[in-house]
Amino acid sequence: MNEIYSEEELKNLPFMNESLELEKRVEDLLSRLTLAEKFKLCAGRMMWHTKPIKRLGIKSFTMYDGPHGVRPDTMGEKRSTYFPVAICRAATWDLMLSYEFGKAIAEETRELGAHMLLAPGINIQRTPMNGRTFEYQTEDPYLNKHLAIATVKGVQSQRIAACVKHFACNNQETNRFTESSEVDERTLQEIYLPAFKATVQKADAWSFMTCYNKVNGIYGSENYNLLRKRLMDEWGFRGFAVSDWNATAYTNTGGCVRAGLSLEMPTAKKYSKSELTKAFENGEFTLEDLDENIRRLLRVMFLVGLFDDQSKLPKGCRNTPEHQQLARKIAEDGIVLLKNEGDLLPLDINKVNKLAVIGPNANFRLGEADIWSGGGSSQNFPPYEISPLDGLKHKCKNKVEIIEDPSLADITIIFAGLNHNNGMDAEGEDKKELGLPSEQVNLIKNAIQKNANTIVVLISGSPVAMDDWIEQVPSVVEAWYGGMEAGTALANVLFGDVNPSGKLTMTFPKKLSDSPAHNSERSYPGGDKVFYDEGIFVGYRHFDTNGIDPLFPFGYGLSYTTFAYNNLTINKKKINADDTIKVSVDITNTGDRVGKEIVQLYVNDIESSVERPQKELKGFKKVELKPDQTETIVFELNKDDFSYYNPVENSWVVEKGWFKILVGSSSRTIHLEGEIEFS
Ligand code: GLC
Known about the structure:
Distance between the termini: 63 Å
Shape: globular
Low-confidence stretches: none
Number of helices: 17
CATH superfamily of the largest domain: Glycoside hydrolase, family 3, N-terminal domain
Strand content: 15-25%
CATH topology of the largest domain: TIM Barrel
Bound molecules: alpha-D-glucopyranose
Radius of gyration: 26 Å
CATH class of the largest domain: Alpha Beta
Number of strands: 28
CATH architecture of the largest domain: Alpha-Beta Barrel
């Protein structure tokens, strides 16, 4: 212990042997660390790094934000690809795009010399008021887990650790550092944990970030039940847990070590040498507790190649045309056509002479804002950005005159929506209101008076209420924060070069009181405790079970073509718990242009001894079809897809009896139904 090695001796130690199996390398290195060195490895330094241990050749392990672009610094010294935000990527419902996104952002992480990306954020969208809604994927646990699996697999394909966050139930910004999310066991199991669990069991996630908040009274960073019991012992997580930045502020050193927190970021507070020494000497944690935490961190250091010949690792690349094209593709496929009466869209570039382009988000860009005025930790600094107006100018050049007066135009496009200022779509604060700012509503109403041919394009990252203007507007598009190529993507969709195929992954309510979390002050924003009284009835589960009509439902999005659903067949009528059920349906493109359709499958338990949602998503497929082309989509289901979590028996249960299989183009547009009986 504490030996000094020459460079040559170091190279020949077992843990440096790349052909030695992983766990043997980990154990060999762990056995060589002194207690003081283990303490050193427990906390970060300089915001994004662990401390090096020169004696053993342990280099600093580096991690960077963020969920839609790598940000190695806070003022943009180094630039990287700004991909569409998570809610936009999710709206593509395209798992391959999520994988490709994960791979690309990992390539940029690697090129910047880092080893871990502090992403994806996969917290369930419980309320439309959450300031970080744009950073998360969906309100539905099934869609959430499949998107998360694909993203983590993509990131780790480059031997970059994904850091799945924020574990768990970090579903609002209000009081995020201190509030306790009070969630019953069935709701945790059915709604808030599935995606986290799936990233471990289906994607082998190498890191988890512990949340600021408490879960049922215990802070995420010292929550033994969440970390050691569920994440590590039950789910089989082999990676390491890292705190959110300063998330250990109100915790106890021994509690964090025992719970399984390997790394405190950004610096040593509860994991300072003195605090660790005191806690250790007081018997607040054992050497075994500490070794298990260090073992996990070392394991991921080996997995990302920290000790390997760097020339053998994936190279990495940054700001490449391929990444920029991928950003554009995700933006194009994430755009959701919400309304298109009179078929104002797509615009015909040969028929439009004058196009009025107005609205506060026509020039939307992240710009040079520092992180706290750029949405928070997910801010990044791209080499360029194409705003909506830039994209239209490029598309219309020498063909269509772009003006600013709706009364003189054939068609008006209003770029409205939100931004990353505090109180809107930004970390640290929740939104102040659900509707658009009043000046935007007035702008829309005035423009409509001047020209009925008006299209509203929302540049935003969360649901907005539209009841005071949408009736008068023939076409509405949700374009999200579409990344650095957003303007090009938008122009391609608005002029029909791309047929929109995105669908909402979160319900847009008509008014806030319709939203399940907003049933009372105690459920949102809550106080020291936020009571998840709605339980499993999050999102469409609430709206559909209670017969409340949303403004736009989960899974909704229009196309420039139409699709027909026919011939639902189920391969068995009566099934038992071990059966696989095959459900097939024919989808036909009945329009005149190529289009993609996201076919959704929901299940409904017709009679159950416990309350269950009116429907639950248990399958989805995105298919591209030419005009008149028909494709048969096949879904495979098993008992898990029909089960609910029974907290008394502490297990998943599928009750005997009849279930409905519902296939549709949104949660509210079910085209075909079938029934099966669990015997
Ligand atoms: C922030 C965020 C987290 C981010 C971290 C580092 O407060 O909650 O998502 O990765 O700190 O910036």
